[in-house]
Amino acid sequence: MPVSQQKQLDFITFIQRLLVEGDFVATYKYALLHAIADICIEQPLRDDPNYELVIPFTEIVEKFVILYWQHAVPFSADAQVDESDLLIKQNTGKQAKIISSLFECQNNNIKNTNQLVKSEYWSGIKRDTLKTLKEGPLWRLQKLAKQDNCFLYPHDKTVQHITLKPSIAFCFRRFYDLVVHLARSAWVNKIQSITANQNILGNQTQLHDFLFGVKRQTITKAKPILLEIQKDACFYCQKPLNSNRKSSDNKASKVEIDHFIPFTKYANDLGHNFVAAHSTCNNAKRDHLAAIEHKDRWFEQNIVQHSNTLNDELSQYFNCDAQRSESVTSWAYQIAANNGARLWLGGKEFMDCIR
After folding, report:
1. Which residues are CB-neighbours of 10 under 8 A, at least 6 positions away?
2. Measuring CA to CA, which residue among 226, 200, 216, 225 is closest to residue 77?
3. How buried is residue 251: exposed, middle or buried, by Cβ count under 10 Å (0-12/13-18/19+)?
4. Residues in a beta bridge with 37
5. What is the band of 217 on the pLDDT scale with cuts at 50, 70, 90?
6. Is the predicted pLDDT of residue 203 greater than 90, yes or no?
7. Which is nearest to 65 in space by CA: 135, 114, 134?
8. CA 74: distance to chain centroid?
9. 126: Cβ contacts below 8 Å, ≥ 6 apart
């Protein structure tokens, strides 16, 4: 049975109530809401939209670490100030434990969350983050006007998971963009409202991009292997990339790494989601989904033929879960079809996304 429009409206209403009526003394609840939304779209598509999704606490812990990783980087590069004093606070009290721990890891040459999971620090961070989740956001997220309102999932403290109620996972998938936008906006506003952050932030227009933006320098790590598996051809137009030529000679010869599923739709760097393209093709595609023929080629290249190669070459920099990339791609095109979106074919050409 399809999810009724009323149930979908009830979901949006609850999210709105949660952000308005909830008691947010720290940013953990925004992170939890964001994490649940991410996990929902990273699941394979189910035939029954009313399924109940079981989410182990360990998955939420992993998502928390990914979301807070960039937040543990000093906001500015003032050499005259201790770096720890430039860390953005996530609450009105002392610095959040997860920020201090991740900052320590970064100072010990841990470059990304993939390296962190394989390091000696992981067991302690996983334990501390799980403790924080259980003591705070897991059972307080749904407390509205001081009362429990378990609309998303029941409060069962005897198990090591949450179970989303029927249709909730579907709604998180259906309204992912809205939920993440609201969670991030509220998260940024909370950080800006904390008095201790005022001297750190300065130009607050940079804050959202600092906390949630794409890190271009890291993405270039994918360039050599993509040029190899694409045989130096642009993923989209299939013409030579001329990657050995200087970009100043010819604008079209400049090579850029593109998020196949745009970063604006899914703001996580997955190793299997990258393709190499001309700057002109990448700029023309922008934040649109690519046409189905490009999607089929992406699947053949990055999932079928070269999944293991991408994993071997990029796992030290990015999360290289091929199943997760495939699930996110299926979700993105399903939403595009439901919304009647137009897909980018090439240049200025678009085509309908057929249901």
Report:
1. 151
2. 200
3. exposed
4. none
5. low
6. no
7. 114
8. 21
9. 58, 61
